[in-house]
C-alpha cells in the first residue's frame, strides 16, 4: 500500500542548511524516539526536497527498527485506499493495517486540495 523507498532512500544525502536546522532536529528526534504521538507537518515549495526527505526518513527508520516499522504513502493513494475500504465496508481492516506501523509518512497531501471527490466514489 504505497512505496516505502523512492528517490534517494537515504537521509544522509539530504542537505540540511542553516535555514532548515529545525527539520534536521525533528528528523533526528523521529529517528531516536520510537513512540511519537503528535503529527508533524512538513511544508515547502515544490522542488524543495520534501518527498526526498520523507523517503530517506522512512528508509532510515526501517533500517533502524525494521521494515514494518514505517511506511510512506502519497496522500492520493491513502485517500484512494480509504475510499475503497469505505466502499467494501472494510474500515476496520484498513485501521488494523495502519496500526502496525510506528511511523506513517503521508506525502503530497497538498495534491489533494486540487482534487474533487465525486459522490459516486462512495457508491
Describe this structure in words.
The model is unreliable at 1-8 and 118-123 (pLDDT under 50). By secondary structure, this protein is mainly alpha-helical. It has 4 helices and 2 strands. It has helices spanning 21-32, 50-65, 75-87, 91-99; strands at residues 70-74, 103-107. The protein has a two-stranded parallel ribbon.
The percentage helix is 40-55%
**Percentage beta strand:** 5-15%
Compressed to H and E, one letter per element, the order equals HHEHHE
| SS field, number of helical segments | 4
Mean pLDDT: 79
Distance between the ends: 22 Å
Strands ordered across the widest β-sheet? 1-2
How many β strands by DSSP? 2
Q: Roughly how many Å is the radius of gyration? A: 16 Å
Largest sheet: 2 strands, parallel
- Summing up helix and strand content along with how strands pair, one would put the structural category as mainly alpha
Low-confidence stretches: 1-8, 118-123
Shape: globular
Topology:
Blueprint: H1 21-32, H2 50-65, E1 70-74, H3 75-87, H4 91-99, E2 103-107
Parallel strand pairs: 1-2
Helix pairs in contact: 3-4
Keywords summarizing the entry:
mainly alpha; two-stranded parallel ribbon; 41% helix; disordered N terminus; disordered C terminus
